[in-house]
Amino acid sequence: MPDKYTFEYAIVRLVPKVEREEFFNIGVILFCKRLKYLGVRFHVNPSKLAAFTEDLEVQDVTKYLQSWNCICAGNSSGGAIAEFEQSDRFRWLAASRSTIIQSSKTHPGLCEEPEKELHDIFEKYVR
């Protein structure tokens, strides 16, 4: 039987009008310390966004989220946060915030392959 590894994940939400507290899921961030894995996957559905607001452009949200890819990878174009240890980068990305892009509380799990788990969670909660 293959080894299973603990992981944590958070759902990334878009809150177009923070004052209304309405949101929809746009991504997942997953961290597996033992396998040194930190990944994010996102997709902003243009139809859902239009149903919530006309004040935001998909391209603007996507551009912001692309910096999360850089932070996960530890790429210097992700700024100072990208230089943190991997676990600290996950904590920063999954931290509670009151902006239009928010994360759920973190949830634990067990997996064999973090990349596959990220894909499966993304398909279940975002697509």
Provide a descriptive summary of the structure in words.
The chain has 127 residues and is of the alpha+beta class. 35% of the residues lie in helices and 26% in strands. It has one domain. Strands 1, 2, 3, 4 and 5 form a 5-stranded antiparallel sheet that branches. Strand 2 and strand 3 form a beta hairpin.
In brief, what are we looking at here?
By secondary structure, this protein is α+β, with helices and mostly antiparallel strands. The protein is built from four helices and five strands, in the order βββαααββα. The chain has one domain (5-125).
Residues in helices, as a percent range: 25-40%
Mean pLDDT: 95
Large-scale geometry: globular
N→C terminal distance: 30 Å
Q: Tell me the major beta sheet.
A: 5 strands, antiparallel
DSSP, total strands: 5
Strand content: 25-35%
CA-based gyration radius: 15 Å
Q: Catalogue the unreliable spans.
A: none
Order of helices and strands: EEEHHHEEH
DSSP summary: helix tally: 4
Briefly note the structural class of the backbone: alpha+beta
How many domains? The number is 1
What are the defining features of this structure?
4 helices, 127 residues, alpha+beta, globular, five-stranded antiparallel beta sheet
